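User: Can you fold this complex?
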Amino acid sequence: MAIDHLDGRIIVLLAREPRIGVLEMSRRLGVARGTVQARLDRLQSNGVIRGFGPEVDPAALGYPVTAFATLQIRQGQGADVRAHLATVPEVLELHTTTGTGDMLCRLVARSNADLQRVIDRVVGFDGIVRASTAIVMENPVPLRIIPLVEQAAEDRDRT
Amino acid sequence: MAIDHLDGRIIVLLAREPRIGVLEMSRRLGVARGTVQARLDRLQSNGVIRGFGPEVDPAALGYPVTAFATLQIRQGQGADVRAHLATVPEVLELHTTTGTGDMLCRLVARSNADLQRVIDRVVGFDGIVRASTAIVMENPVPLRIIPLVEQAAEDRDRT
DNA sequence: GTACCAGTGAGCACATTGCCCAGTCGGAGC
DNA sequence: GCTCCGACTGGGCAATGTGCTCACTGGTAC
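Assistant: Here's the predicted assembly.
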């Protein structure tokens, strides 16, 4: 589970320049190609690296508005609500949480007006008691993993 | 900005099997290799596809706990808080929002106990007035874009 | 009709991949 | 101390994919 320093450098390098191949990585890191290949295989079968899917920008697709909705669910309706939300394309992500709400989901929409349509579709389902929505204005820190990977690699080193 | 049906199929195919190359894609889609190559170049320079970074699973790195924190910021301290949060590796994402809170951030931690340390570090900063945290229990819908891409492609078709 | 754009199918040199091997090194176990 | 084992190295191989170019076609706008 824990990654060592070399694993960390591989992931960071890959995150910064995804297009580079195994050979180029081995050159930059100063290790043999087979080593990088073996590490990568291990990281993937470990599940540390889930995949290399394309990162798509919803804004560029015509969905510039992002929002987070906190949902309160009627007791026992959780599974139905999950299934319902999974059918809405504008729901990019869904979590069940502790705290005030029962679920938190990330939404996108074509405009603020369109967001109303999306929310109606999301909450237009029996098991949802209440929803409160926060519209995203800015995204100062986009989803990132590099600092965490570096942290994890250093923790390992100290051990 | 808008993507057509072929663009949609390219992205979906790529999302499902990231390792396949341009040549294999052209075979599956029944179009010429040059076409796929040109489309991909356009999608990337458009910004629709931001990149192909590795998807790292924080849980596999030793951070199995995810939480969302809603922060209230003292007037005028926004920039400082942003800068502060950017230095915390466990902050994976940060948004400024409308609504009850002023910011929403995604955190990870090594354990529920460790989450306390992370939160202390996050809110241990002058500009933050209040924080309320929701711990993620389940993730029924992991971050996804395929349904949205298909939606966008169909909308385009209808036009 | 002409110009233009997107797609096609083909060809080319080149680099990279996936795979195999023999050899070295360091640590763990006996 | 000795041996075994796993990880890393450096090399070599055939096969494949890449980046690039070309001439040609079909549809569309002017």
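Residues 21-24, 33-34, 37 of chain B lie near DNA strand D (CB under 10 Å from a C1'). The first helix of chain B runs from residue 5 to 16.
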